[in-house]
Specification:
The chain has 239 residues and is an alpha/beta fold. It is built from 7 helices and 5 strands; from the N terminus they run ααααβαββαβαβ.
Length: 239
């Protein structure tokens, strides 16, 4: 009798079923499981046709630049004509600005014809050389002069001359109005909270003719109409 358990003969027939080995599938080196579908010649042609060529892109860019240039010239010319408008048209234009920059405004806030001095009769070119002549003719007393930038304010101040009794408002400038002060020059931002004390403002001159390199003028200032309404009843004059 064998002592080896594997040699045990107990009269029973033991059978062990094993799973058959799966047959291997051979994949060649130059084949992949996902077949690559190449576009047809027609599809390739259509794709190329839909892609803008360098020449087409240049034409599109040129058209856009030309359209932008024309629009800018139109804006410049339109702004130059505004000082020549009569009082009725000025009231309408400034009411539109009021609506644009003050969404809560109503028709009760609109500007009136009587708010403006009609300067359409002034036929001289509105430039620095004629600025003093213009202010001498249209000055109504203590006057605020508004422009778009500190540099432009400096130019207007020089144009008025040393005997004009003018003062500039801003950092580094004297900020107190004297009894003999005739003109107070500043930007909209600086003049919004400027204190005139007991001195009464009679009129406001807007330097509307000047435009910066981006064609912006004092009329593009969002708070301009807010400032004008602060001095409601004072005459508005456009240069």
């Amino acid at each position: 009798m064998s002592n080896n358990p594997d040699d045990l003969d107990d009269g029973l027939d033991y059978q062990v079923d094993s799973e058959p080995e799966a047959e291997g599938v051979e994949i060649k080196e130059d084949e992949s499981e996902d077949e690559i579908v190449k576009p047809s010649k027609k599809e390739e042609t259509e794709s190329k046709e839909n892609q803008p060529t360098g020449k087409k892109r240049r034409k599109t860019d040129d058209k856009y630049k030309e359209k932008k240039r024309v629009k800018m010239e139109q804006d410049i010319n339109t702004k130059k004509k505004i000082p020549q408008l009569n009082s009725t048209d000025l009231a309408h234009h400034f009411s539109q600005l009021l609506i644009k920059f003050n969404k809560d405004s109503t028709h009760l806030d609109y500007f009136k014809k009587s708010d403006f001095v009609d300067g359409s009769n002034y036929k001289e070119t509105r430039n620095l050389d004629n600025f003093k002549d213009f202010t001498d003719k249209y000055n109504k007393g203590l006057t605020i002069i508004l422009s778009i930038s500190r540099v432009r304010i400096g130019d207007l101040y020089k144009a008025l001359g040393p005997k004009s009794k003018a003062m500039k408002v801003g950092k580094g400038y004297e900020s107190k109005v004297r009894d003999d002060t005739k003109y107070v020059l500043g930007t909209v931002e600086k003049m919004l909270n400027f204190d005139f004390g007991s001195h009464e403002v009679k009129s406001l001159i807007l330097d509307t003719t000047y435009q910066d390199q981006k064609s912006h003028s004092i009329l593009d200032e969002p708070k301009l109409t807010t400032l004008l309404k602060k001095y409601e009843g004072k005459k508005i004059i456009l240069y």
